[in-house]
Design brief:
419 residues, alpha/beta, FAD/NAD(P)-binding domain, five-stranded parallel beta sheet, 20 strands, globular, binds flavin-adenine dinucleotide, flavoprotein, oxidoreductase, FAD/NAD(P)-binding domain-containing protein, FAD/NAD-bd_sf
């Protein structure tokens, strides 16, 4: 085990949740404590901008990515350390195991460990684990070229990502035929049907007025919106022009069967479903610490709820997309949870009473872009309820997906990161 006299606060994952936690805690820790920030990729991605980067040439290099290094995260002379690229591969009681050694050992002891490992999704929504920045950009360019070559595009899933991708494609390529197939009765998730299930994290419903506005805008661009239906994923070999379940550019026009018995034809398929919490590290040591849909159970102080005697009972915490904190799994929510957990850890280390977390009202804001000029959204206001997002907020989202406001300023190290 690494033999430093420093007490380690280990953070697993350097995206929104992990990074905002680090920024809020770094200057508050006592001198005998240090942060070790572990990130498996050598870079991080401003995920909201991916919907444009996978469609619009040039956007793979804009407002999107930053290298995760000691200099980009911490000021020079800092005792805190960035371990990137490196991965946490095992969780133990009071220590964890790294893929590559740090200070001569792959096992690192800690006084607090923060799990901020986010969600798992295939390319292009999230970079493949262990990929390089250049490799990720090359993947985006390949997808841009494939979409350019396609004539008819089927988008499976009309959540925010599927809807925004439809917005980008229909703006840049107005003559391509775009269809969204979505299981809910409006775009996004207005019905909130999933929220009745037990021991399952489920997001709150979205405001139906937003679903209606988005559907109207997309229909004006001749996007075909199919609701209350699902694409059937084939279980075995297929014949002729039937779709074989693969995403991306097809070898000719394929027929996608729907549950209703109808079908959609497309020569490009974009799969925008299947976002799952990246909680395998927890599952491997204590599956009882997970909800039935694999989110990490936490209390109001983000402490992992593990069985007595479990290696995870004690000093493990979870935030962001991987944690079963109530509310949506968004960058906005993760950016609120990071500083809130930092306040909990700061209080605990200093022997004070930490404050229970309740999500701020701003976490219920939803802004959806439809290309560079259009979008819709709402902001939750106390007493007033949801009000339509003003034009300047929509403009900030469509311009750079709030990267100038929330992504680049997150990098507070000696090396400045800009667009
Ligand atoms: C295409 C797309 C568009 C989106 N648009 C919006 C939007 O407009 N607005 C909004 O608010 N939200 C949006 N979101 C959601 C938002 O991006 C996520 O909610 C947010 O990124 C969650 O942050 P996180 O830190 O919890 O997890 P992630 O961003 O998933 O980051 C987890 C990090 O942990 C690292 N990691 C994982 N396992 C290990 C390990 N074992 N060891 C070391 N490191 C590890 C990963 O490499 C990654 O960097 C979008 C998401 C996508 C995919």
């Amino acid at each position: 085990m690494a033999g430093s006299p420093q007490k380690n606060v280990v953070v697993i994952g350097a995206s929104v949740a992990g990074h905002t936690f680090v920024n809020a805690l770094a200057d508050k820790l006592p001198a005998d404590h240090r942060i070790l920030l572990v990130e498996r990729n050598g870079f991080t991605v401003h995920l909201p901008a991916v919907v444009r980067a996978l469609v619009v040439p040039g956007w793979e290099s804009k407002n999107l990515t930053a290298e995760v290094t000691q200099a980009s995260i911490f000021k020079s002379g800092s005792r805190h350390r960035v371990l990137s690229p490196n991965s946490v591969v095992e969780l133990k009681k009071n220590s964890l195991v790294l893929e590559k050694p740090f200070e001569g050992s792959t096992e690192v002891s800690f006084v607090k460990a923060i799990i901020a490992t986010g969600a798992s999704q295939p390319l292009p929504m999230r970079p493949t684990p262990g990929s390089t920045l250049e490799g990720f950009k090359a993947d985006l360019v390949r997808i841009q070229n494939d979409i350019k070559a396609a004539k008819s595009i089927a988008i499976i899933g009309g959540g925010t990502v599927g809807t925004e991708v439809a917005g980008e494609i229909s703006e840049l390529y107005p003559n391509k035929h775009v269809t969204i197939v979505h299981s809910d009765n409006g775009l996004l998730q207005p019905s909130g049907i999933a929220s009745t299930a037990k021991e399952v994290y489920s997001p709150p419903p979205t405001d139906r007025k937003l679903s209606v506005a988005l559907e109207k805008s997309l229909k004006q661009r001749a996007v075909n919106v199919v609701l209350n239906d699902r694409v059937v994923f084939p279980k075995g070999p297929v014949q002729g022009s039937e779709w074989d379940g693969t995403s991306g550019l097809q070898h000719g026009v394929r027929r996608l069967a729907l549950q209703s018995g109808k079908s959609v034809e497309a020569d490009y398929v974009f799969v925008s479903i299947g976002n799952t919490p990246n909680s395998g590290l927890v599952k491997a040591v204590d599956p009882t610490a997970l909800t039935n849909n694999n989110y990490i159970k936490v209390d109001a102080f983000f402490r992992v709820q593990a069985a007595a005697g479990s290696p995870l009972s004690g000093q493990y915490y979870a935030i962001g997309d991987v944690a079963a904190v109530a509310g949506w799994k968004t960058a906005v929510a993760a950016a609120a949870e990071g500083p809130a957990l930092a306040a909990v850890i700061d209080a605990e280390i200093k022997g004070k009473k930490p404050k229970a977390y309740s999500a701020p009202a701003t976490g219920g804001a939803m802004v959806v872009s439809l290309g560079t000029k259009e979008g819709s959204g709402y902001l939750p206001l106390p007493l007033f309820g949801n009000v339509t997002a003003p034009g300047f907020i929509i403009g900030m989202k469509t311009k750079d997906f709030f990267a100038g406001k929330s992504f680049f300023p997150r990098f507070q190290g000696s090396q400045k990161i800009t667009a």
